[in-house]
Amino acid sequence: MRLRTLLGDHPGTAALKNGSIRSHLVAFDFVPYSPTNKGFKPMVREAAFDVSEMAIVTYLMAKSFGKPMVLLPDVVLARFQHGHALYNAKAGKLAPRDLNGKRVGIRSFTTTTGAWLRGILANDYDVDLDSIDWVTFEDAHVAEFVDTTKRAGAGKQIMQMLIDGELDAVLGEKSDHPDLKPLFADVVAEEKAWFEKHGVVPINHMVVVSQTLSDEHPDVVREVHRLLAESAAASSAAPRFDRGEMQRSLRLIIDYSAQQKLIPRAFSVGELFDDVTRALW
What we know:
Layout: E1 2-6, H1 14-17, E2 27-30, H2 40-46, E3 51-55, H3 56-64, E4 69-78, E5 85-88, E6 103-106, H4 112-124, E7 133-136, E8 150-151, H5 158-163, E9 169-171, E10 180-182, H6 187-198, E11 203-210, H7 211-216, H8 218-233, H9 243-259, H10 275-278
Helix pairs in contact: 4-9
């Protein structure tokens, strides 16, 4: 069976994408999107692919609106988030606890990195997220989500707005600009302390399959998972999660997403899978 597939270039997907890992049961027609996240919207809105990389928060939001897709227990991107928050040091020093009442930019309010960072700010630094004037540049992948943030003016660029002093801070970005500094002053130390507290590596992207594929071809879904797992095992740089680690990471991002009203309620981790994919853990 040929599967229309959206899958980015990651250490754990390389062996699958370069053809060194093959299957007699399935073949992948890889659809090029650059960056890969540009393909999440057509997957969510049009069910454009049989197999798709997917930001975990986008998946949670899609599930809350009954989109016909199901999660596989395969992580393709995971990282600590603290280094993806910046402020303009020319305007004076800014620390995480100083964000209350400030103007903060983010590409889209619903990005997974943004949800992780807001959860960290709210729960570990006592930041009042509702006090912040959020400025966004893109809509959500999930069309039904009602975004109440302030949209940046036409032609405005997030990093230039920060450099020009139109924003106090931005989330989800990195830069080598000399005026822009990490919001978390010692990123490595902050990440280490956060991990020691929570025991979680934040998951960004996993893989989903269409509900139709799972319902009608469970053997194909099992084979897709086997191939993804084999490809990940071929790279020492691929994310490594055992069942407990994946559960903890998913549990926390579910809680953060519900807290931020990205989803109407906190799902159980088990609800993210169906009978076919739940058995793959």
